Amino acid sequence: MPTTEEPVHHELQCLYREHREWLVGWLRTRLRCHHQAADIAQDTFLRLLGRGQPMAIERPRAYLSTIANGLVVGLWRREQIERAYLEALAARADACTPSEEERALVFEALERVARLLDGLPLRVREAFLLSRLDGLGYAQIAERQGVSVNAVQKSMLRAYRHCYQLLYG
After folding, report:
1. Which domains does the chain have, with CATH numbers?
2. Could you tell me the mean pLDDT of each successive run of 10 residues in the chain, 169 residues long?
3. Which residues form the RNA polymerase sigma-70 region domain (predicted)?
């Protein structure tokens, strides 16, 4: 008796065979690294496998490149977060070198925060980070952003509402 997973796996196998090499080449032009391109291509197909649903894909290359592009953006964001963290760590006079495990945990937490704040306007994100990470008060944030305290309060409310909806909504 065939399971519902068999057609999905068969579709994915065909998609993989027919488009993997193209996808790796497409990614290689963007990443300029064959190994990263192969990893992202593999992650793209894993995303599809994780969906476990039949795929009625009319334009497979457009579909695959959209998923892969999202993964590339995520990779670049992680690299940017890691660089910013390492620069901030190097700038601290009292900095002791964290272990690889501690660094991985910090990078993971920073990535979660970045994903959580995606979709918020820049001024709202900045106000939230200045408050939560830098410990600035609303008056200090207002002065730095050149807005009223009331505008900062509204930004913070919007940021909290956004985070709450993503986490619990």
Report:
1. 1-97 (no CATH), 119-169 (1.10.10)
2. 60 90 95 93 89 76 92 85 77 73 84 83 89 88 94 94 87
3. 15-80
Q: Are 152 and 130 in contact (CB under 8 A)?
A: no
The pLDDT, as a whole number, for residue 40 is: 94
**Which residues, other chains included, contact 24 with Cβ-Cβ below 8 Å and sequence gap of 6+?**
34, 37, 38, 41
Name the residue among 165, 159, 81, 102 with its Cα closest to residue 125: 159
DSSP 58: S
pTM: 0.60
Sign, CA torsion 32/37/39/43:
positive
Closest CA to 128 of 145, 148, 104, 111: 145
What's the rounded Cα separation, in Å, for the pair 29 and 42?
Answer: 16
CA–CA gap between residue 169 and residue 1 (Å, rounded): 39
